[in-house]
Specification:
alpha/beta, Rossmann fold, two-stranded antiparallel sheet, globular
Length: about 220
């Protein structure tokens, strides 16, 4: 704990991820991003690292529930016929990512928009839907977090340099302590994944999930 002009600042990992004030954000773990037959698979993206992150995240999510950490699912969802997509957003999705404009991505009511089965929300879980990369843009996420007394968000999900990094930055700008679990986020391009984590480390805590799980289990974290 650090004190600055009478204000107490959380500094250690134990303080940051205390279950009493921490939420676990599960970002975009949906069929279009994570499954064979989904949009990213159709565009030729390598899903291997996404599968690894999903396997790890399943365990982390179980531990979070046991520690009474608040799980919040972030679900990308677009309207049919691109009714929620702007020109700049379509430029990104169609030109940069190679999406078939007739198909769409995580379209409301489709299999592609659904959260993958092994990480599916439980009854009563909070699901925040979004139409842009950051989970804070055009959503009620900030209100939900503040209503539940959340000071720290722990980020997981896909894609590291996209929706994860965008949400992480906005979390900081909304004055949340921000922690990224390096083995529970993934990207289709390893180089972009590594570059994003390097940038994020310069601004926030990027740690292995085991370090956080030790805190949630009441044991001291060990970080190299």
């Amino acid at each position: 704990m650090l004190e600055v002009h009478g204000r107490q600042i959380l500094t250690t990992l134990e303080e940051l991820v205390d279950p009493a004030h921490t939420a676990l954000l599960v970002i975009d773990m949906q069929n279009d991003f994570c499954r064979e037959g989904g949009l990213m698979h159709e565009t030729g993206q390598d899903l291997s690292s996404v599968k690894q992150a999903a396997d790890r995240l399943r365990h982390v999510l179980s531990c979070a529930r046991a520690a009474r950490v608040l799980p919040v699912y972030i679900q990308a969802r677009s309207l049919p016929q691109h009714a929620s997509s702007s020109g700049p957003w379509l430029l990104f999705m169609v030109v940069r990512y190679g999406m078939d404009p007739k198909r769409g991505c995580t379209v409301e009511g489709t299999w592609g928009a659904e959260i993958i089965d092994e990480l599916a929300p439980e009854p009563g879980d909070t699901v925040v839907t979004k139409a842009r990369a950051s989970a804070f843009i055009g959503t009620n996420l900030d209100m939900i977090l503040r209503s539940n007394g959340i000071a720290t968000v722990v980020l997981t999900g896909v894609v590291t340099q996209g929706c994860v990094e965008s949400t992480a930055r906005d979390a900081m700008y909304h004055d949340y302590y921000t922690v990224v679990l390096e083995d529970c986020v993934a990207a289709y391009d390893p180089g972009l994944h590594d570059a994003s984590l390097k940038v994020l480390r310069s601004r926030m805590d990027v740690v292995p999930s085991d370090a956080v799980l030790r805190v949630w289990a009441g044991r001291p974290p060990r970080i190299a």
